[in-house]
Design a protein that fits this description.
By secondary structure, this protein is mostly helical. It has 17 helices and no strands. The two termini are 33 Å apart.
Length: 412
């Protein structure tokens, strides 16, 4: 990776440091493992539900509380690495994630599971801005692509890994977490041997005051990207919260394995799409993403109604392609407008919007199911809303180019 260059920093770094290329791939692997860890509990929800007897609402609350904790962490600590450096934030966050895996492995009830999800959300929120900004520091060309491809790659890997381990190996609520804990410890050691990519800046304490804002240059691009971000991550929320129960209810499948396969189909196709469309203009990528979200979501909901498992998994892959393209187009539209000391903050805003869109609808869907709504009907209503959001995103992307130019000229 010839265009990887690290910026000078005053932070103390080890005498022997990783190359810029190795550091870039280490940072990408951290995003993958963090998001794999975030989805690892999903195929286990049916196991926990059978052991502890909680409702569908509790499942969505466990899912949603992670997203809310992550949002709070992004708002408080999302900009911290712009001031104290990427390395300190990432070393602490990866070690905390290793501890979180042990919390999951020893959880003995809903309260313990929720506590683990809260701590996991806090650690992930602190790390996402730092790791994404670090990749941009090292490689301005591949950084935006890596920031778009690693979230779906991690999500798919986590869901599939957990599903396979739960279905085929013993100790389903233990083994996956121990594997991930070892990964996090190894990554923390790797970060110790990275060179810092930014200089220290004053204002670290002030940066902890919750804030939700963008530099002027990023505001117009964010308006263009907002609808597709909301549509894409709302659909991710549906898959993360209701799909385990749906695959059991509609198809009679083992929900742990089926939800893991669905997560892999959704996120894996998203990651592949990001790589395939990396050279396309962001506006074209977002337009394709919105179209694939509309058609994939409609097809998935139709397949559920027709009880077609093959149709459902194929439609899931199409919807996941839309998720990957929509998120990539949004990241490549917004993030490159930020200066080096603004990158973590801008990425934090992108992720705040994304996880808010993922968490809130999932909790609302859980409320509907708990108060008498049929699971399949609730999912289909959810899918209709996602398709409507994606339609709005498609129209905004197709007709928003002139508006973007005008808004951009105003901000400059």
């Amino acid at each position: 990776m010839s265009n990887c260059t690290a910026l000078p920093a005053t932070n103390a770094t080890p005498a022997r440091t990783l190359s810029a290329r190795a550091s870039f791939f280490l940072l990408a692997s951290i995003t993958v493992s963090f998001l794999a860890g975030s989805l690892a509990p999903t195929p286990l929800y049916p196991v926990y539900q059978a052991e502890w007897g909680f409702s569908a609402l509790t499942t969505t609350e466990i899912f949603g509380i992670y997203a809310l904790a992550l949002l709070g962490s992004l708002l408080v600590a999302g900009r911290l690495s712009d001031h104290i450096g990427r390395r300190p934030v990432l070393i602490i966050a990866t070690l905390v994630q290793a501890v979180v895996m042990l919390m999951f492995a020893t959880a003995n009830g809903v309260a313990a599971l929720m506590l683990a999800r809260v701590v996991q959300g806090l650690a992930t929120g602190a790390a996402l801005g730092a790791v994404g900004a670090g990749m941009l520091d090292l490689d301005k060309t591949r950084g935006p692509v890596a920031n778009a491809v690693t979230p779906p790659l991690g999500t798919g890997a986590g869901g599939l890994l957990a599903g396979l381990l739960v279905h085929y190996l013993p100790a389903p609520t233990l083994l996956v977490y121990l594997v991930l804990a070892v990964v996090f410890v190894i990554q923390a050691v790797g970060v110790i041997f990275m060179a810092e990519t930014v200089t220290r800046r004053v204002g670290a304490v002030a940066s902890l005051v919750p804030q939700f804002g963008l530099p002027a240059a990023a505001r117009a691009p964010m308006l263009i990207a907002l609808p597709v971000l909301v549509a894409a991550w709302s659909l991710a929320g549906l898959y993360g919260s209701l799909i385990p129960a749906l695959t059991r209810t509609v198809f009679g499948f083992d929900p742990s394995l089926a939800s893991g396969i669905a997560a892999f189909a959704f996120a894996g196709s998203g990651a592949a799409t990001v790589l395939a469309l990396g050279s396309r203009a962001p506006r074209v990528v977002m337009a394709y993403g919105a179209f694939a979200l509309i058609s994939g979501t409609a097809a998935a909901m139709g397949a559920l109604g027709a009880q077609s498992a093959v149709g459902f998994f194929l439609a899931t892959a199409l919807a996941g392609s839309g998720f990957g393209a929509g998120f990539q187009g949004a990241v490549r539209t917004v993030v490159p407008t930020a200066k080096a000391h603004e990158r973590a903050g801008v990425l934090s805003v992108v992720f705040v919007v994304s996880y808010l869109a993922m968490g809130v609808p999932a909790i609302v869907a859980g409320l509907f199911v708990t108060h008498g709504g049929a699971l399949l009907t609730t999912a289909q209503y959810f899918g209709t809303v996602v398709a409507a959001l994606a339609t709005f995103a498609l129209l905004g992307t197709l007709f928003g180019g002139k508006a973007r130019v005008k808004l951009g000229s105003i901000t400059r």
